[in-house]
């Protein structure tokens, strides 16, 4: 105890000092790696901003005309995947945590966790070889009956390898991530909150709406952002399923579909040479910035709810 403060200071043991130093070193190492990646991307991307557009594949008007459709395709495919995956993931996680019998919930939980371990190339093979041919007749029906709607404008793709097929594949890929995280979050809801809602006469769904979902909102946002990050960076599944074109189009069932930045890099990098390599790296820098912005937005959204805490 010190006379000035009157507080008792515990003596630091060697194990505590070692663990604290290791944790600090690990955090600093991550920042160093991130800074190194950013410096590499920026340094290698500078020539791409000054390149003659005639040296870029497709001979666009400028670098930004080249990367614009790629950015659109990346964001569009990821957004569609989230629209499909998030409601299903929330429903599955709520069923596992609050509706399913214990044994069934355990089995479903194991299945979801195993699905997250499936390699992306397997999803790509499934999407290109099974899903696309099977769903093509449905696309034809959509165009025939709802062709007046801009998203289903004719002509229809004859192979089924469209941006909507890619979105379905991506949704299946990110579904286990979002489901597993939301399930654990919902299971951590304070029992006092749930029992209080039920004691006041709320139904099970009203209890979930009033107690479970508000408590888990920051975690849901984090889970969705992790799934979005996976969808933005997915490469092989998109490259194997999509029939790409450098266009900006909102049509979901057409033969011309915008490709994504990772898939474009994977398809063109083996044959790239000279300044075109810098162009591909520059598109990677754009993806890096998009991902960083998405994660920053997620942290901001979570921080808005950090004051909420339940009575455990």
UniProtKB/TrEMBL annotation:
<dbReference type="InterPro" id="IPR035906">
    <property type="entry name" value="MetI-like_sf"/>
</dbReference>
<dbReference type="GO" id="GO:0005886">
    <property type="term" value="C:plasma membrane"/>
</dbReference>
<dbReference type="GO" id="GO:0005315">
    <property type="term" value="F:phosphate transmembrane transporter activity"/>
</dbReference>
<feature type="transmembrane region" description="Helical">
    <location>
        <begin position="163"/>
        <end position="187"/>
    </location>
</feature>
<dbReference type="GO" id="GO:0006817">
    <property type="term" value="P:phosphate ion transport"/>
</dbReference>
<keyword id="KW-1003">Cell membrane</keyword>
<keyword id="KW-0472">Membrane</keyword>
<comment type="function">
    <text>Part of the binding-protein-dependent transport system for phosphate; probably responsible for the translocation of the substrate across the membrane.</text>
</comment>
<keyword id="KW-0592">Phosphate transport</keyword>
<feature type="transmembrane region" description="Helical">
    <location>
        <begin position="235"/>
        <end position="255"/>
    </location>
</feature>
<keyword id="KW-0813">Transport</keyword>
<feature type="transmembrane region" description="Helical">
    <location>
        <begin position="17"/>
        <end position="43"/>
    </location>
</feature>
<dbReference type="Pfam" id="PF00528">
    <property type="entry name" value="BPD_transp_1"/>
</dbReference>
<feature type="transmembrane region" description="Helical">
    <location>
        <begin position="63"/>
        <end position="96"/>
    </location>
</feature>
<protein>
    <recommendedName>
        <fullName>Phosphate transport system permease protein</fullName>
    </recommendedName>
</protein>
<feature type="transmembrane region" description="Helical">
    <location>
        <begin position="108"/>
        <end position="132"/>
    </location>
</feature>
<feature type="transmembrane region" description="Helical">
    <location>
        <begin position="275"/>
        <end position="298"/>
    </location>
</feature>
<feature type="domain" description="ABC transmembrane type-1">
    <location>
        <begin position="71"/>
        <end position="298"/>
    </location>
</feature>
<comment type="similarity">
    <text>Belongs to the binding-protein-dependent transport system permease family. CysTW subfamily.</text>
</comment>
<keyword id="KW-1133">Transmembrane helix</keyword>
<dbReference type="InterPro" id="IPR011864">
    <property type="entry name" value="Phosphate_PstC"/>
</dbReference>
<dbReference type="InterPro" id="IPR051124">
    <property type="entry name" value="Phosphate_Transport_Permease"/>
</dbReference>
<keyword id="KW-0812">Transmembrane</keyword>
<dbReference type="InterPro" id="IPR000515">
    <property type="entry name" value="MetI-like"/>
</dbReference>
């Amino acid at each position: 105890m010190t006379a000035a403060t009157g507080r008792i200071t515990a003596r630091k043991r060697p194990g505590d000092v070692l663990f604290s130093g290791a944790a600090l070193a690990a955090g600093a190492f991550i920042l160093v790696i991130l800074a190194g990646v950013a410096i590499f991307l920026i340094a290698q991307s500078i020539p791409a901003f000054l390149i003659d557009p005639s040296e870029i594949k497709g001979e666009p008007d400028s670098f930004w005309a080249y990367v614009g459709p790629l950015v659109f395709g990346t964001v569009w495919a990821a957004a569609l995947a989230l629209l499909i995956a998030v409601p299903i993931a929330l429903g599955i996680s709520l069923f596992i945590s609050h509706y399913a019998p214990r044994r069934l919930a355990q089995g479903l939980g194991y299945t979801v966790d195993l699905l997250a371990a499936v390699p992306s190339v397997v999803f790509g093979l499934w999407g290109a070889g099974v899903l696309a041919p099977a769903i093509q007749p449905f696309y034809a029906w959509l165009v025939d009956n709802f062709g007046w709607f801009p998203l289903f404008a004719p002509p229809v793709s004859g192979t089924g390898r469209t941006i909507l097929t890619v979105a379905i594949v991506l949704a299946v890929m990110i579904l286990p991530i979002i489901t597993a995280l939301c399930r654990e979050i919902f299971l951590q809801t304070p029992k006092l909150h749930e029992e209080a809602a039920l004691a006041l006469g709320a139904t099970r769904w009203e209890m979930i709406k009033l107690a479970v979902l508000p408590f888990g909102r920051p975690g849901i946002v984090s889970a969705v952002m992790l799934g979005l990050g996976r969808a933005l960076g997915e490469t092989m599944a998109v490259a194997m399923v999509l029939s790409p074109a450098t266009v900006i189009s909102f049509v979901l069932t057409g033969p011309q579909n915008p490709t994504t930045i990772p898939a474009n890099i994977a398809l063109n990098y083996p044959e790239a040479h000279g300044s075109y390599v810098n162009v591909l790296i520059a598109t990677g820098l754009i993806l890096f910035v998009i991902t960083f912005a998405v994660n920053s937005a997620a942290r901001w959204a979570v921080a808005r709810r950090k004051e909420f805490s339940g009575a455990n």
